[in-house]
Design a protein that fits this description.
The protein is an alpha+beta fold and 262 residues long. The chain is built from six helices and eight strands; from the N terminus they run E-E-E-E-E-H-H-H-E-E-H-E-H-H.
Length: 262
């Protein structure tokens, strides 16, 4: 069986038998891989205590056609991020990043941009960045990586201008996750006529998301209310396009929509 060596981040892991471990990993140049780490819990193992979530690893495995699980041959820690496990909010955000990355990772399809995006998000959490700030930057980056980034400035349907529905500091714009994001008035009416759900979002929230996605501002620079509002609409948009509510979103999205009209 040919040996493969690559950098990897564990997405999931669970016991197998008395001393082994099954790992789902995102590797940088080989995509998602499913590995069997035989004897992982034995102190004599070549990867004993090296298969932790959140750490960047250097893994070597043997793969064979038609085999469901590749055999892990060796594992070393390249970047340790122990601080994440010492902070409950950082830990929760990190598990969210891993779960979302799992939606975008596919076997046999390399996605180095996704790997780098995940590593960057975990690095931020390990440095003590506000967990929601690290999460929303990852979520916007993931949407862009998957080709699902919402239209935030122009109309998602016609590509034209989509001005606020009313002037003033509390201005709101038409928005439909199912139609791809921000909409002008005419396209919003057409979407409603077609049976799509169309609501409104504060214009300022979308402007902040544009700045974060373009890296003109860090999510850490937002005040807590702004950050919560941006993350709320991004998480709800992701939920629609993933066609599933990630388990790690249940607590966050159980609160009322933070961008609903007062």
């Amino acid at each position: 069986m040919p040996a493969v060596r690559d950098r990897a981040l564990l997405l999931r892991r669970f016991p197998y038998g008395e001393s082994s471990l099954v790992c789902h990993a995102l590797s940088r140049t080989h995509g998602r891989v499913h590995l069997l780490a035989k004897g992982a819990y034995r102190p004599t193992s070549r990867f004993y205590a090296a298969l932790d979530l959140f750490d960047t690893l250097e893994l070597e495995w043997n793969s064979a056609p038609g085999r469901e699980l590749a055999l892990l041959a060796a594992g070393e820690i390249e970047t340790r991020r122990a601080r994440i496990a010492q902070d409950l909010e950082a830990f929760h955000a990190a598990t969210t990043l891993l779960e979302l990355a799992g939606f975008g990772a596919h076997e046999g399809h390399a996605n180095p941009e996704l790997f780098d995006l995940l590593a960057t998000g975990l690095d931020a959490l390990a440095r003590g960045v506000v967990p929601d700030a690290a999460a929303v930057e990852f979520e916007l980056g993931l949407l862009h990586n998957l080709g699902l980034a919402p239209a935030l400035a122009a109309c998602a349907s016609c590509g034209g201008a989509a001005p606020p529905l009313e002037p003033g500091p509390a201005a709101r714009v038409a928005f439909s996750a199912g139609s791809g994001g921000r909409l002008c008035s005419a396209c919003a009416d057409a979407a409603r006529a077609a049976g799509r759900r169309v609501g409104t979002l504060p214009s300022a929230v979308l402007e902040r998301a544009v700045e974060i996605l373009a890296r003109r501002v860090s999510a850490c620079a937002l005040d807590p209310d702004e950050l919560e509002r941006v993350r709320d609409f991004v998480a709800r948009f992701l939920e629609v396009h993933l066609e599933s509510r990630p388990a790690s979103y249940r607590r966050f999205l159980s609160a009322p929509n933070r961008n609903a009209r007062p």
